[in-house]
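Lab meeting, item 3. Inverse folding demo.
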């Protein structure tokens, strides 16, 4: 793997980490007004949806 490829790989990994943190922060702010029982459920569904959509975006034929 060349240096250019490693730089691209590192850049993509860094962006993915930043976007994950951003998603977590936005999701936490959105569910804060909910009662604790619903907050936990909303966080779970939000995280599952995030991983599902990210997985669909990473498909090779997409």
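The presenter then showed the designed sequence:
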């Amino acid at each position: 793997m060349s240096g250019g490829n490693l730089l691209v790989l590192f850049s993509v990994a860094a962006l993915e980490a930043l976007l994950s943190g951003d998603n977590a922060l936005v999701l936490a702010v959105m569910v804060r007004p909910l009662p604790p029982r619903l907050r936990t459920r909303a966080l779970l569904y939000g995280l599952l949806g995030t991983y599902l959509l990210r997985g669909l975006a990473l498909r090779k034929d997409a």
